[in-house]
């Protein structure tokens, strides 16, 4: 910039000098002196005139300044028509460069001292441009460097974390949402639920919003479905002393494969307690009718659940006072879904079709102390007769210690195709069909320690599966207390009494090994029946004997 300005001015800098003054030649008049030496020749006159400036009334126009002509340097603050010589220009340019350098220092890594105001947009290029870090309390037009911004963001996050209400989150337990026929915030259960979900999205930490539902019957013509983890913060509470007083009646379910509360793709129902969840049994719902023997017939395509968790991370949590009735499945956990009933002492699963509680495809159900009753599907008995209280299949897992099973058409407990069940201290009884109390097949495994199984055709049937019956009582079964049909039954201190045909039966290379149990065997038609070794008809292949070792 300096080089350009100096070129434009074309004036050379030099030391200051005294103000110029006009001069005339010291010529004398020959007429006055009569001295021939005072006569001036024309070349002399021409030489003097060539060094003069033509002016009219003191104004000169179109001047051409040649060579090292000098002028006085104006003062630094001069803002007039005075000639700016090279000294003035050098000083002005130096001052300008100083301001620019102080304001930019664009690629030098330097710092700015003092306040600099830019009147035009400024673009910084290159890396490493720096500025002094303003004070934390600075709220002005000063440049904020990365250190200032980082500090501000950290402080802001700390402030929000300490007080989430600043950005809309509730820092404390939000007010309850109430539902009842009149006098509450809502009279419609669905509207209350939707409002709670909206609030759940404003929750922080372990806080939740509770829907308190008053006594009454709430007719609902749609299901509830969530794939939203935020619904974990919604707790739905009815009458926890008597759940029959708060009824959620789902209508229009016939032919819809309708699941009342569906959690899928990671959705979570955080907590529900104090309700009867049902649908009509008059033929307009999933169930078509019930015959005189107590066996249910079902409408086509009506195979939904009261509660269903489908997919990894999908979770449903139920409290200790719940009734689920008239769904083809009461509870389902499928494809790694999870249903959690950690205290089922007041949880009743009534009148299902295929199964009351089914864990399938890697799903898990925890239903400790739950009561399952009335599972049956007698719609097409020539095709299939279904109806079990609990079922773990295709890698599903049941934790049902202390639970009860009654009025089943097929079995009290099923473990199929790699299923597993922890079923200690259960009471399995009063079937309406002729199936086994517990059927364990397809490399499945069940622990039945301390349970009681009575009134079935077979108490425990390990059909190519594994069963532990330590401390289990198997009585009053029409065929056998224990059957190892290609499977394995082990345990100790089992009680096997009053079974019509066999106390213990083993066939198809099945194996039974029981310790400290023989003393507890009595009243059986025959205590032991083990199939011997033999040869298969047709192929002629031989097989080994089944074995029973009861001590």
Automatic annotation (TrEMBL):
Biased composition (Low complexity): 529-551
Record region (Disordered): 17-36, 527-551
Keywords: Signal
Source taxon at top rank: Bacteria
Signal sequence range: 1-18
Protein name stated in the entry: Uncharacterized protein
Keyword Signal: yes
């Amino acid at each position: 910039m300096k080089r350009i300005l100096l070129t434009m001015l074309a004036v050379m800098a030099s030391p200051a000098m005294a103000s110029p003054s006009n001069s005339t030649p010291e010529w004398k008049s020959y007429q006055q002196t009569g001295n021939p030496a005072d006569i001036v020749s024309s070349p002399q006159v021409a030489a003097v005139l060539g060094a003069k400036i033509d002016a009219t009334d003191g104004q000169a126009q179109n001047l051409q300044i040649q060579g090292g002509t000098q002028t006085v340097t104006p003062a630094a603050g001069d803002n007039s028509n005075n000639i700016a010589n090279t000294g003035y220009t050098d000083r002005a340019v130096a001052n300008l460069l100083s301001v620019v350098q102080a304001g930019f220092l664009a690629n030098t890594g330097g710092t700015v001292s003092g306040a600099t105001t830019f009147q035009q947009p400024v673009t910084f290029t290159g890396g490493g441009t720096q500025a002094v870090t303003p004070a934390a309390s600075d709220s002005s037009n000063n440049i904020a460097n990365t250190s200032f911004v980082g500090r501000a963001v950290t402080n802001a996050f700390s402030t929000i974390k300490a007080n989430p209400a600043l950005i809309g989150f509730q820092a404390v337990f939000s007010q309850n949402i109430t539902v009842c026929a009149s006098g509450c915030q809502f009279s419609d259960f669905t509207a209350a639920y939707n409002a709670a979900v909206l609030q759940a999205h404003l929750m922080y930490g372990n806080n939740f919003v509770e829907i308190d539902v008053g006594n009454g019957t709430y007719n609902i013509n749609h299901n509830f479905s969530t794939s939203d983890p935020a619904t974990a913060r919604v707790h739905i509470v009815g009458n926890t002393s008597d759940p029959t007083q708060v009824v959620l009646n789902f209508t229009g379910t016939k032919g819809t494969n309708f699941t009342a509360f569906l959690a899928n793709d990671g959705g979570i129902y955080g907590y529900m307690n104090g309700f009867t969840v049902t649908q009509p049994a008059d033929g307009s719902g999933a169930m078509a009718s019930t015959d005189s023997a107590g066996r249910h017939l079902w409408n086509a395509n009506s195979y939904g659940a009261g509660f269903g968790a489908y997919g990894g991370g999908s979770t449903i949590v139920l409290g200790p006072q719940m009734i689920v009735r008239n769904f083809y499945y009461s509870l389902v956990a499928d494809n790694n879904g999870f249903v959690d009933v950690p205290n089922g002492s007041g949880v009743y699963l009534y009148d299902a079709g295929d199964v009351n509680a089914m864990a399938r495809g890697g799903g898990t159900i925890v239903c400790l102390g739950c009561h399952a009753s009335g599972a049956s599907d007698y719609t097409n008995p020539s095709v299939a007769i279904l109806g079990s209280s609990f079922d773990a299949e295709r890698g599903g897992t049941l934790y049902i210690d202390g639970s009860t099973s009654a009025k089943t058409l097929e079995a009290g407990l099923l473990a199929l195709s790699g299923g597993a069940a922890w079923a200690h201290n259960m009471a399995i009884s009063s079937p309406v069909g002729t199936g086994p109390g517990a059927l364990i097949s397809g490399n499945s495994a069940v622990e039945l320690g301390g349970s009681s199984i009575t009134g079935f055709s077979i108490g425990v049937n390990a059909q190519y599966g594994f069963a532990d019956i330590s401390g289990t009582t198997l009585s009053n079964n029409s065929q056998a207390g224990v059957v190892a049909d290609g499977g394995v039954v082990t345990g100790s201190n089992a009680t096997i009494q009053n079974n019509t045909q066999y106390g213990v039966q083993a066939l198809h290379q099945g194996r039974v090994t029981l310790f400290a149990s023989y003393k507890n065997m009595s009243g059986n038609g025959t205590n032991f029946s083990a199939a011997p070794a033999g040869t298969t008809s047709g192929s002629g292949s031989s097989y080994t004997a089944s074995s029973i070792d009861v001590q």
